[in-house]
Q: What sequence folds into this?
């Protein structure tokens, strides 16, 4: 477990800098240096007056099993929402009315969020999960000859996750 | 790999990527988040445009979700007592109803709908809102308003 700072809660009063035995909380990025943080120490977590620091596990537990029926129906719903995202984007691009474009862009954005939530509940909540790794591996072999495909990004993800 | 993973469109793959990008951000894994962002950007470029469509097609698709899609998924979630999925479906159905209402309003009012005001989308649940300032908490998912973002009018 190491400490992580939610920068949108941090009020910059720097108590965490005083208590950290390794200097891990003092970085130019605003994030805590995971490599210096002592496993499970949590001094800064308890000291922060703004509750801006929390511990994140280094290894996450396996996600909840999803039934096949739930997975199937969520994938179908995600397909429909993604289809609506495409429709809304297409309508936006075909129009030159700024207000209609704005409306369709909002509809597209909303549908993207709705599809994301379906995938999250369909078993793709955790980037570290086996399902995600398997999918990334498959993408790599599928796109072997595709020069535009960001293979390096996918390989790095597989190394890091 | 499951069959449903083989036939995914650019938008579906994009949404899977941005979902994982958000998950990495929550774990404060910024590098991984930006790598999923790169992958999402690739799928953004692969998107195709559907010609000769209108608002009616969009409305019909929402109506199908509201009459079938949500109910089917809810039954499946009920059967396996999957509360996470039920939560997603309750939020998603509410947001979908609002999208439908908005489209119907646009059909009646036309551009007057957004003439002197703005439109907002909640990044957590997809809630859409028309008005000058968004509510201080999202009425669907209860997140504070800093997660509710305006969609700008583009210069044409
Ligand atoms: S103690 Fe908390 S509020 Fe203060 S700088 Fe550290 S993280 Fe920010
Ligand atoms: S948990 Fe301990 S070592 Fe890690 S950043 Fe906080 S005070 Fe420093």
A:
């Amino acid at each position: 477990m190491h400490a992580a700072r939610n920068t949108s809660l941090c009020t910059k009063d720097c108590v965490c800098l005083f208590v950290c035995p390794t200097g891990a909380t003092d970085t130019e990025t605003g994030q805590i240096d995971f490599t210096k943080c002592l496993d499970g120490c949590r001094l800064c977590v308890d000291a922060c007056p703004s509750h801006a620091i929390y511990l994140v596990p280094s290894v996450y537990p396996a996600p909840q099993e999803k039934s096949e029926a739930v997975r199937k129906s969520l994938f179908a719903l995600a397909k429909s929402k993604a289809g609506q995202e495409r429709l809304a984007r297409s309508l936006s691009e075909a129009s030159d009315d700024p207000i209609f474009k704005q409306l369709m862009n909002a509809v597209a954005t909303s549908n993207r969020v709705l599809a994301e939530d379906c995938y999250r509940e369909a078993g793709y909540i955790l980037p570290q999960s086996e399902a995600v790794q398997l999918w990334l591996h498959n993408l790599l072999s599928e796109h072997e000859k595709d020069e535009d495909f960001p293979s390096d990004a996918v390989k790095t993800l597989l190394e890091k996750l | 790999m499951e069959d449903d993973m083989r036939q995914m469109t650019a938008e579906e793959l994009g949404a899977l990527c941005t979902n994982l990008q958000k998950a990495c951000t929550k774990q404060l894994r910024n590098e991984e988040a930006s790598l999923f962002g790169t992958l999402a950007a690739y799928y953004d470029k692969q998107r195709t445009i559907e010609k000769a469509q209108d608002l009616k097609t969009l409305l019909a698709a929402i109506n199908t979700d509201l009459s079938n899609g949500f109910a089917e998924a809810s039954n499946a979630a009920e059967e396996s007592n999957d509360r996470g999925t039920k939560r997603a479906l309750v939020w998603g159905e509410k947001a979908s109803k609002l999208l439908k209402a908005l489209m119907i309003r646009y059909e009646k009012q036309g551009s007057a709908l957004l003439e002197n005001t703005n439109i907002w989308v909640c990044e957590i649940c997809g809630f859409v809102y028309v008005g000058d300032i968004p509510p201080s908490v999202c009425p669907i998912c209860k997140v504070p308003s800093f997660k509710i973002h305006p969609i700008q009018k583009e210069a044409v």
